[in-house]
Every structure is written in C-alpha cells, then in structure tokens.
C-alpha cells in the first residue's frame, strides 16, 4: 500500500468523491478516489489517500481490471488500514 504523505483530513458529510482508474508505469493500475462529483477533464489531481496522479480518459478495461485503492477506501469510510 502507498504511504499517506498528506496531513490527515476529515471527510465532511457534504463532500463527494469519484473513483477513477490510474494506470501504473509498471503495468496495471489502481482506482483512486478524488474530491468532486465527477471527472471533468482535469489533467491531474490529488487522491483521497494523498497520491498525486495524472488523469486521462480511462478505458473500459481499466475500470474492470484495476482494484480499488485500499487507502482511499479506508479514508472515505473512516477506517484505518
């Protein structure tokens, strides 16, 4: 798992996130959560787990094959890993 390098943040009940698959340079990838209602063409963003990522149009295979980031999931559900 990636180490969370950002300051601890709290998710407000009003704050929405969207999941987005991010490919890895080594092959494969992972679906990270980003603040916002949906992806609107941003070229980069910081995920809920603190990872900086370039955002580009994913393929259907990316959505199917990339697993959910456990750190993003834990952050959004208030659980610790």
UniProtKB/TrEMBL annotation:
Organism phylogeny: Bacteria, Bacillati, Actinomycetota, Actinomycetes, Pseudonocardiales
Name of protein: Zinc-finger
Organism, as annotated: Saccharopolyspora karakumensis
């Amino acid at each position: 798992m990636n180490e969370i390098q950002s300051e601890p943040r709290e998710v407000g009940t009003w704050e929405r996130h969207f999941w987005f698959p991010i490919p890895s340079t080594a092959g494969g990838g992972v679906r990270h959560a980003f603040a916002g209602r949906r992806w609107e063409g941003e070229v980069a963003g910081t995920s809920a787990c603190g990872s900086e990522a370039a955002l580009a149009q994913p393929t259907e295979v990316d959505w199917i094959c990339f697993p959910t980031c456990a750190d993003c999931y834990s952050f959004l559900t208030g659980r610790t890993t």
